[in-house]
Structures are given as structure tokens and as C-alpha cells.
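So, can you check this one?
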Amino acid sequence: MIEFSHLHKSFQGKEVLHDISLSLKERQTVCVIGPSGCGKTTLLRCMAGLETSDGHHKSADKPKTNIGMVFQRFNLFENMNVMQNLTFAPIHVLNMSKQEAERLSMEHLKSVGLAEKAPSMPSQLSTGQQQRVAIARCLVMKPEVLLLDEPLSALDPIASSEVMEVLRKLKKEITLVMVTHNLNAVSEIADRVIFIDEGRICEDGTAEEVLVSPQYEATKKFIRRQKNLFYTINSQDFDRPELNARIEHYCNRFGLGGQAARYVQLAIEELLNLIPLDNTIDVILSKTDNEVRMMLDVYFKDNEKNNLAEDNISEDNFLSLNILQGLCEIINEDVKVDEQHNIKIRHIHLELNQERLLLR
């Protein structure tokens, strides 16, 4: 359907895409993943014809493939209502009658569950509703390939599930190419996963091949970072609101409620009362794939004492230890050796109480 051979793209002398070759099959769902700035969106824009490449060969089985693109920021016309947003292009580009354009638009609004929002202005819609309107607007143009740039970003769990329901239906009807950081969505919907790093395709295979058994270290590192939350504390005056916001966002990605985020925030807060903050502390929050189980790993320079032993806890911090013990099923503390820097690193591992995480 679409084929690129040796695609190159540069901006101001910096190469963003390097020697990209790929082909898309009909009704195939392809997810493109990779770190921010690696060229994912630029690749979509080249596919859509919104960027001219520096040199490539592009061919199609048909004389012209009709391609639609849903932008990360939706790009709805703020001065038009939902129906006008959908009918504008069919009327002015396809020369469709207003009556036919409105009929087709309503059909697609129904397919994304927003028929009742036809007279609404974009500002009256939630973020998830705006995303679904943007998808419907593309579908009115009858694309054979639909490109989606981060369709699930900045959505809460409910809105994300609503957009995913739309994508599940579309998967059966047209070719989808989706750029996303949401690995849960990738594992569910993708027939094929492409990992891009520094403008190059590093991995190209099924979701299981790329997400479960990646071959390249860059892919493994990216997947670890997407599944885990990493945060470094450099002083006692670190940005606590930022850390709390990132914990909340991390919990939302897995469909956990606000109670789970507050529970994790409390566990970290109490732990930080029990360990020295005068050296760099690395915090890693992770979740198992198959169950609601979250782990917290904290690393800092060894201070030659068991920080969580009751004998080493001051009277002022004894309450923090009791709270932490109530929040966690497992608490371990040990010492590891960083052979590269020849120093000892103290490691604290917590496994949070599963029942508390499930509270909404």
C-alpha cells in the first residue's frame, strides 16, 4: 500500500531520519515507538506528505493512497462546532454536498460515540472527546491509511479507554500507523511494532518480538524506562510537587485510581524521612505486567548502617517506620557494589500492599 526506500530527512543540517525503508500492508496496525525526538512524528508527516524528504523512493500499489492524519494537538477549528469541523473538508476539498457531508459526518460521530456533540464547540469538549472528534474528522475523508500521533497522550484512564475502543473498531477496517509511548496499548492493538532510535529503525517485528524479546540494548532501555518511573533526588529541597505529579501520571497510565497514587506518594514520603538526603538518591517505581503489584527501589551511597532497623530509627521518625510497614508487604535493605565506580550502594526494596492499590 505504501512503501518507502532509503528515506532521509534533515532539519537545519541535523539528520532526523536516516535511511528509513519500510512498507505497509492493508489493514495492518503498526505502532511506532521510541524516545522523544527520535523522528517518529517526522516519519508520520513524511508519510502524510506534510514534509518533503531529502531523498527517497516512495511507491504505492494504487495510483494514490488516501491518507489521513490525527495530530497530537487535535488541530480542531476552535471557531467551528463539531459538525462544521467534520464537514469543512468534504465540502471544500471533495466537492461533496452539504447534505451528504452532514450525513457522513453524523455516521462517523456515531461510530466514535459522539453524535450528541455535533452542535458543540471544541472548547466544550473534554480532551478525550476532542481526540475522538479529530479521528471522526479524518474518517469522513475516507482514508485507506490513518496516521495517529500520540492519540492517548494526556488522556485520563477513562478517556484513554474510550479512544482505544474506537481504535479497536478501526483496526478491522483500515490500515493504522500509531506513534505512542503507551506500551499497554501497543501490546494490545499492534500487528507490528517499529522501534526508532536516533532516526534509524532498530527493531521491526511483532509486539511480542519487540516488547518481550528485544534484540538491541537501546530498545531494552526504552522499554524499561516506559514501564518504570525513574526520579533522582539531589537535595532535601527537591521538587516534591513534581515527583507527586509524576507518580499520579504513572498510576493513571495503568488505570489505577487516585487512591493508588496517594498511597505510593505516602510510601515515598515516609521512606525519605528514614534515609539521609545529603547524597543523590535514585528512586525507581515499577509495576508487574500481569497483576496490580508495584515495587519501589531506592538507591543511595552506603552510609554503613541499616536505615530501617528499629535500633537505628530516631524517636521522631518511629511513626514513619510504622506507617511504612503498614503500607508494604515486603521491605528489604541490602548493599550492592558499583564495580564501575568502586563504591558501595545501599538498596531498599519495597513491595506495596496489593489490596490498598486496588482501592478507588
